[in-house]
Structure formats: C-alpha cells, structure tokens
Amino acid sequence: MPAFPPFPRAAAQAVRDPVLRANLRHATHTIREKRARAVAELSDWEQLREAGRRIKDHTLRHLDRYLEQLESAVTAAGGTVHWAEDAEQAGRIVADLVHATGEREVVKVKSMATQEIGLNEALAAEGIRAYETDLAELIVQLGDDRPSHILVPAIHRNRGEIRDIFRDRMGAWGRPAPEGLGDTPAELAETARLHLREKFLRAKVAVSGANFMVAETGTLVVVESEGNGRMCLTLPETLISVVGVEKTVPTWRDLGVFLQTLPRSSTAERMNPYTSLWTGTTGGDGPRAFHLVLLDNGRTATLADPVGRQALRCIRCSACLNVCPVYERAGGHAYGSVYPGPIGAVLSPQLRGITSEIDASLPYASSLCGACYEVCPVAIDIPEILVRLRERVAEQGGRGHRLERAALRAAGWLLDHPGALAAGERLANATRRAQPRRPPGAAAWTDSRDLPELPEQSFRDWWRSNRR
Questions:
Q1: Strand, helix or coil at 202?
Q2: Which of 30, 92, 188, 305 has its Cβ near the most Cβ atoms within 10 Å?
Q3: DSSP-based three-state secondary structure for 203
C-alpha cells in the first residue's frame, strides 16, 4: 500500500481547498436528498433493511458452506473458480489468465475489489493495459487520479476540470476529444461514449467485479447505470470476475431484497437501468470462457471479530458517505483507501490490519453522530465498529494511549469511591477561578473546543441542600 498521511493531516489539507469543498457539498447534498425521496416511497423500507441484515449475517455465519456451493455451481455451469488469499495472488492469477489468451489489453467494469488490490498497476507491471469504462472511473484514470467516492469516483471534479482532462489526456489513451469540447454533460458523455466504443468492439478480454453472487445457481450480478458493464460482460471472448467472498447470497429469493434496497440507497432509483446476470458460459452467446477469482484479502480475518464483521454486510451503496459531515468536508482522498467515508473508516483498517499511521487514524475520522447507521440499507452499526477499532488502536499502546489508559483508570477509581469524588468536586469548585482555560498537555482538545465553565456548586451539593 502507498504511504498515505494520517487522516488528520490529510483532512487538514483538504478542508483548505474551497473548490473541493464546494464540489463535495453540492454532490452529496443532491444525492442524499434524492435518496431520501426514493426510500420514502416504500412503506416496508425498514422491513427490507432488516431482511438484508439478516440475510447477510446468516451468510457470513455459514460462508464456508455457501462458498463451496457457489464453486460447485459455477463449475457445473462451465466456469472456472480460482481462490486468492491476498492482493498479490489475485493479481498474479488475473495476469496469467490474460497472458494465456495472448492479449495485452483488457476492458474493465467498475469494481471496488480490483481497485482494492491495485489490479490495474499489477497488470501494467506485466505489460497489460487495463481500460476503465465507467465514465467516472475513466475520468479518474485519464487524470492520473484516485477515486474519492464509492458510487461517484470523480465526485471531487467539476465539469470544467473534466473537460480539461478529456482535452489534454484522452488522445494518449485512444480516440482524442473533439476540438472545441465544451463542459455540458451531453458533450462530455458523448465524448466518452465515442472514446470507449472502439475499446468495447476491439477488446477480447474483460475484467469485472460483481455486486452479488448467488450460491444456489452460481450466478453473478452487476448493477450499473451506463451500459458499459453490459458491453464488457457480453462482447469479449474471455470474462474474468474478481469478487470478494462476502458478496455471496444463498438464493435468488435473497437477491430480490438487495435489488430493491441497493438502487434506492445508491443512485436514488427504483431500479438500476442495467442489471446484468450471468451463469457460467453459454454456447454462441457471450464470453466463451469465464473465470471467477474469489478474493479473501483480509476478509476472513475481519469475519473473526464479532463486532467488526458487520462491515462485511456492506453492499457498496455509498449512502453513508453522502450523509457524513466529516466526508463532506474532508473528501475521499483523505482516507487513503479505495473505501472512503464511514464504511472505509471501519473496513480498511480491518482488511489491511492496523499496522500503519493511516489505518490507526481512520477509526477517529468520525464524530460518531450515527447518521451513517440510520441510512445503511443493511443496518451496519458503523459507530459501534469505530469504537471497537479505537479500542484496538489504544491496545497497541504508544505514549498518548498510555496516558489515556492511565487517566481512564484514575477516573474509574474515582467513580468507584463516592467520598473521594465529592471531595474532588468541592476542591474543583473552590479553585475554579484559578484554573487555566487551556490546561497543559490538552492543546489537541482545547484548540478547537472551549472547556466548560465549572459551577459554583456541584450537583451533588445542590441536591443535598434542596432535596433533603
């Protein structure tokens, strides 16, 4: 993983960018307002939310059994299943599969899993060029940028910036942008369509992820809004899908729940414009070879934590990002991960392990307001996981954490001894005028907060005087 700065440092830089903040504020407010209206149309939304939570929890408890069932079904349908323990192994498997076709380029469907493992970079090291075909991912790729949002990877860019990227960089990747390109959505979309069309018609190999995998039939599902996914999934001769093991659902009936909640939570639509499903291979229709790479990359380690495993319910709708006050101001790049926002703050440290400064800082990238939990379509209690991860960070030690632990132990002793607590309160009240407004060693707290003013009398003494 590249060396990203800790979240506080990255966020401090991001909040000083007025263009970034304006882009984020406009986009997140627009998306969340549309989502709220779409969800309000369903009288049984809470029941669907609970059903999604139960399906995911049941599947995770019996994941070994459902993965074996999935493998058998995919194999029986003509596909080939590969197991990847980590990013390096997954990259090697995909590169070898592409080399076996004799091709040196692939088209890609938008996929968080392939971003997570750095697949584009791994393929480039093997002489294979990967072309992103999702519009937002294309913008990010052409701009030599990083995604900053799960649903809208280029949310940090405005139309003028996108026009400039297309004009300056598109020619190096294929068909150039036309002369005099403007910044209207129609012009930008048409330019991307023409640029990508030649790649769709030429490519022999495609790489995708999947939103869901149905264990009983071996069916994979991709939901998208542009049609680029449909092109990648049907035109090439070889299809390679890299999917996290947690994307499994047991049955088609279970899938029906998520096809109602995902579109409304992500794009505020009643139904995705394109929902593509494929099961193995079919003679004369679609790819002649299908490979499924099942990715672990820290997921089984996450599954071992009874609190943290909730994060594996995530269906990547991004609703939590659009309501988060921290994300709205800091943006996605500050999280140092392909999973930004609240879900990234709990998922990335578990998948990667709390071994770096950025991962140790992510559990603190939250005010614990709980807005993320309220909108999550599978009821992930993100604040609960954040507190659990903060506990794990503290357990690793460090000077600040040792002081915190000592302070909490002292507070615990004091609260267990009412007489000492009462004496301490009276002493604090008696000396309140001499107490500093900025206690030594507390600058990290008092730089952005005012200490509460102590009253002349403690509540304990007031109660004794007025409620005998």
A1: helix
A2: 188
A3: coil
What whole-number distance in Å separates Cα of residue 252 and Cα of residue 212?
A: 10
Strand intervals (E) in 272-410 = 274-279, 289-295
Catalogue the E-assigned strands of 64-162.
Answer: 80-84, 105-108, 129-132
- Per-10-residue mean pLDDT of the chain, 468 residues long, equals 82 91 91 95 97 98 98 98 98 98 97 96 97 96 94 91 96 95 96 96 97 98 95 96 98 96 94 95 92 98 96 97 95 94 97 93 95 97 96 77 78 92 86 77 70 81 83
| Cβ count within 10 A of residue 51 | 18
Domains observed in the chain: 42-297 (3.40.50.10420), 399-466 (no CATH)
CA distances from 360 to 7, 173, 349 (A): 9, 38, 7
CB 209 within 8 A of CB 113: yes
Separation of alpha carbons 249 and 221, rounded Å: 11
End-to-end CA distance of the chain: 64
Q: Which helix (H) or strand (E) holds 330?
A: helix 325-330
Query: 107 φ, ψ to 5°?
Result: -100, 150
Sort 180 into a burial class: Cβ within 10 Å, 0-12 / 13-18 / 19+. Answer: exposed
